[in-house]
Design brief:
Length: 361
């Protein structure tokens, strides 16, 4: 039987004493020496965090067992504490980066059933640090949090970010003529999710498929691109969490523009998803257009900016069509000449909505 030590066998203090030291452990090993924003870390009523700009961005994101991850997926794969911690770090630092900020701190609130293995929680601490490092945000530490018992695992983090004297890059600044760019990936985590949700699959045998599963379990957002794109004049930015089309619709609506996507660029993103598409009978372009959770950074930058290596040009921004053209204002996103709502059924999707979406896409 399961002889593992569970959180129900420890006091809160004992669990924190095991958890907190692990949050910083890998920094030395990774050779990261970036300045930390942490002035006072876990242990007092509050942490103290540097805010050199005088302003800071702040956002929060939650993962709930059964809704955002599964301890055991239909495919048999298990989400470790490390996975959940890694994803928690990524989904939060990505939001700070999407404002053009440098992630500066995380506070993490854990709700845990009493039978949760202590090892799972220790792995979560390691995953949190590994996630910030993978997202190239070594300066961002978990500076505090909260612990509590509950019926299912819920992991919430709040992230702060440093604007470094720049204006925040909002969703409403895209202008006609801008190029639409992506730093990071889209579609991979959604392909991974559909693989995880398939009970007929035996994963762990094909490195290409496993890499997609890994993108769902441990997504990586290239956070330095947030500040980099801001410095190069980004007019809007969002992290792609709910799906390319859904998230770009938010930008296009807020900015009063339309976005035209380039098929060739999307095909390039779909290419590595083809083997998964064949196995699951899915057009991989569907994942690229509608899949969430990669937490890549979608941005618009003026047309005259030379795009650095490392970002992919996905399309361009154009003025909103007026009623005179006969096109309704709901057609915000186009795949070349076709509004996405008119794409073949196999490509159409709604992206992710916590209250609407069924399992997968
Ligand atoms: N409970 C809430 N109270 C106040 N504002 C909220 C609440 N929930 C969401 N919002 C706000 O609604 C907006 C949209 O939320 P949403 O979670 O879609 O954005 P997001 O944080 O960029 O998403 P993601 O976490 O997927 O990147 C955000 O500005 C968020 O602060
Ligand atoms: C078990 C399970 N079922 C479904 C999904 C898919 N999913 C959950 S949240 C989300 C969007 C981002 O959320 P948020 O906006 O809260 O960051 C997506 C695509 C999953 N990850 N796990
Ligand atoms: Mg976001």
């Amino acid at each position: 039987m399961n002889q593992e030590l569970t959180v129900g066998q420890l006091s809160e203090g004992q669990l924190i004493a095991r958890f907190a030291p692990l949050l910083a452990e890998q920094s030395a090993a990774s050779g990261e020496s970036a300045e930390s924003y942490q002035i006072l870390g876990p242990g007092d009523d509050c942490a103290v965090v540097a805010a050199p700009d005088g302003r800071f961005v702040i956002s929060t994101d939650t993962q709930v067992q059964g809704q955002d991850f599964a301890l055991v997926w239909p495919s048999g794969v298990r989400s470790s504490g490390f996975d959940t911690g890694h994803k928690c770090a990524t989904q939060n630092v990505a939001d700070a980066a999407a404002m053009g900020a440098v992630p500066s701190s995380l506070v993490v609130s854990l709700t845990l059933p009493k039978n949760t293995p202590v090892r799972w929680v220790e792995d979560l601490a390691r995953g949190l640090r590994a996630g910030t490092l993978a997202c190239q945000a070594p300066q961002c530490h978990v500076v505090g949090g909260d612990l509590g018992a509950g019926g299912e695992i819920s992991v919430t983090a709040t992230v702060t970010g440093d604007l470094q004297g720049r204006d925040p890059v909002r969703r409403n600044g895209a202008r006609p003529g801008d190029q639409v760019v992506l730093a990071g990936t889209v579609g991979r985590a959604a392909a991974g999710l559909d693989l995880l949700l398939d009970p007929a699959l035996e994963l762990g045998r094909d490195p290409q498929l496993d890499a997609l599963v890994n993108s769902q379990l441990r997504p990586v957002s290239p956070t330095p691109w947030g500040a980099r794109l801001a410095q190069s004049g980004a007019t809007s930015m969002i992290d792609a969490s709910d799906g390319l089309v859904r998230d770009l619709t938010r930008v296009a609506t807020a900015s009063g523009v339309e976005i035209v996507l380039n098929r060739e660029a999307l095909e390039e993103l779909a290419q590595p998803l083809r083997p998964a598409g064949e196995i699951l009978g899915q057009d991989p372009l569907h994942w690229v257009l509608n899949g969430g959770e990669d937490h890549g950074l979608l941005s618009t930058v003026p047309a005259d900016r030379q795009l650095p290596a490392g970002v992919l040009r996905l399309g361009s921004v154009r003025a909103e069509c007026t009623a005179a053209t006969g096109v309704t204002h709901t057609e915000r996103i186009w795949l070349e000449q076709t509004p996405v709502s008119q794409l073949p059924l196999g490509l159409r999707g709604r992206g992710w909505d916590h209250f609407e979406s069924e399992d997968g896409f």
